UniProtKB/TrEMBL annotation:
Protein name (Swiss-Prot/TrEMBL): Adenine DNA glycosylase
A GO cellular component entry from the record: nucleus
CDD domains: NUDIX_DNA_Glycosylase_C-MutY
Gene Ontology molecular functions: 4 iron, 4 sulfur cluster binding; 8-oxo-7,8-dihydroguanine DNA N-glycosylase activity; adenine/guanine mispair binding; metal ion binding; oxidized purine DNA binding; purine-specific mismatch base pair DNA N-glycosylase activity
Originating organism: Ceratopteris richardii (Triangle waterfern)
SUPFAM superfamilies, A to Z: Nudix
Catalytic activity: Hydrolyzes free adenine bases from 7,8-dihydro-8-oxoguanine:adenine mismatched double-stranded DNA, leaving an apurinic site
A Pfam family this chain is assigned to: NUDIX_4
Gene3D superfamilies tied to this protein: Nucleoside Triphosphate Pyrophosphohydrolase
Length: 156
């Protein structure tokens, strides 16, 4: 999700235990199918965003300014194969809303933060999340990242 005024991306922290514990990721929702429809993907992420931020992100929402499918990516992590459909959503964020805080808790207690698009190099991201970010930059018409977090940086 991208906020309109500041060009930021929303990140949420993974649970403190389990796979990739405590790392940051883009909001995501798990689905049973390896190839779900776009409608099913949107319904799942809309439900997730409602649970963490209390916002409606569906087509009837006044917050959603633009919403597009970025692409797909298959990430293999050990014995787990993740099939990701990547969607970008531009939303209007009211700075008076407590969820605009750069380090806030969501409604369900998950940590969240809005990070400037160019500020992701300061955040601990998994290789899968970095790939999603690269797809997003390609979608936005920017050149692919060559270095991130000490090893990579964006080239304009």
């Amino acid at each position: 999700m991208e906020c309109l005024l500041q060009a930021c991306l929303l990140l949420v922290r993974r649970p403190k235990t389990g796979l990739l514990a405590g790392l940051w990721e883009f909001p995501s929702a798990s689905l049973e199918s390896d190839n779900p429809s776009l409608k099913a993907c949107r319904a799942a992420i809309d439900k997730y965003l409602k649970s963490i931020l209390g916002i409606r992100a569906n087509s009837e929402s006044e917050l959603v300014i633009e919403r597009k499918l970025v692409g797909a990516y298959k990430h293999v992590f050990s014995h787990i194969h993740m099939h990701m459909k990547i969607e970008w959503m531009r939303i209007h964020v009211d700075k008076k809303d407590p969820h605009w805080d750069t380090n806030a808790k969501t409604l369900n207690g998950t940590e969240e933060k809005w990070v400037p698009i160019n500020g992701l190099h300061d955040v601990g991201l998994t290789s899968g999340v970095k790939k999603v970010y690269e797809k997003f930059l390609e979608f936005r018409g920017r050149k692919t990242i060559t270095k991130l977090r000490g090893k990579r940086k964006r080239i304009d």
